[in-house]
Specification:
Elements (H helix, E strand, L loop, with lengths): L3 E10 L3 E11 L5 E11 L5 E7 L2 E6 L3 E6 L4 E7 L5 E7 L2 E6 L4 E5 L5 E5 L14 E7 L2 E6 L3 E6 L5 E6 L5 E7 L2 E6 L5
């Protein structure tokens, strides 16, 4: 079986190269699991990675230059670059065959994974303005056809992953929401106000 990326961490960033260390999970012939380490060195790219997703035999790397790099895990080479953000891409999630990317430019872009990674929209808030009204986007999560975004002003927003409409705005934190987790029908959010 082909390796499956389960964790990655950038260990070095310099002006001339980026080094990404990735841990893959493999199954050997007798079905015993083991881990292996792979190292990708990207030269002449003065950016760093903030988040990695694996979907349909592709790696999606969120980058500090506002782009998302799509990489072939077999070769470690870029196959395409998704451009649409003007700031640091901090988080990504996949729902309904769509890639949702959250950025410090205060927007969430939506990409169609089944249509050559076409940019199909930017989520809008209830006021008709951009997600900018809620500050930078720090985290995303998905469950049951919904996407949850956390960011500035202590707010979590709930979106329909198909229609891209805003379903609800959850208020409870007093500072930035930095992480979201969904388990057993419950949403957990962690904030800079030191509460969950």
């Amino acid at each position: 079986r082909k390796p499956r990326l389960i964790s990655s961490k950038q260990v070095s960033t310099r002006s001339s190269f980026s080094l990404l260390v990735a841990i893959h999970y493999d199954d050997c012939t007798n079905n015993c699991p083991f881990l292996r380490l792979s190292i990708h060195i990207f030269t002449a790219f003065p950016f760093f990675f903030s988040h990695v997703l694996v979907y349909n035999h592709k790696e999606y790397h969120a980058c500090g230059d506002g782009s998302v790099k799509v990489i072939d895990p077999n070769t470690g080479r870029f196959s395409t670059t998704l451009r649409g953000h003007k700031g640091f891409v901090d988080c990504m999630v996949i729902a309904c065959d769509r890639l949702f990317t959250g950025s410090w430019d205060k927007t969430i872009n939506v990409w169609a994974l089944t249509d050559h990674h076409k940019l199909i929209g930017t989520l809008k808030s209830a006021k008709g303005k951009g997600a900018a009204s809620l500050g930078k986007i720090f985290c995303l999560a998905a469950d049951d056809g919904k996407v949850f975004s956390g960011g500035g002003l202590g707010v979590v927003q709930v979106w329909d992953a198909t229609t891209l409409n805003l379903i609800a705005t959850l208020k409870g934190h007093t500072k930035d929401v930095k992480g979201i987790c969904i388990d057993n029908g419950k949403l957990f959010s962690v904030s800079m106000d030191r509460s969950i």
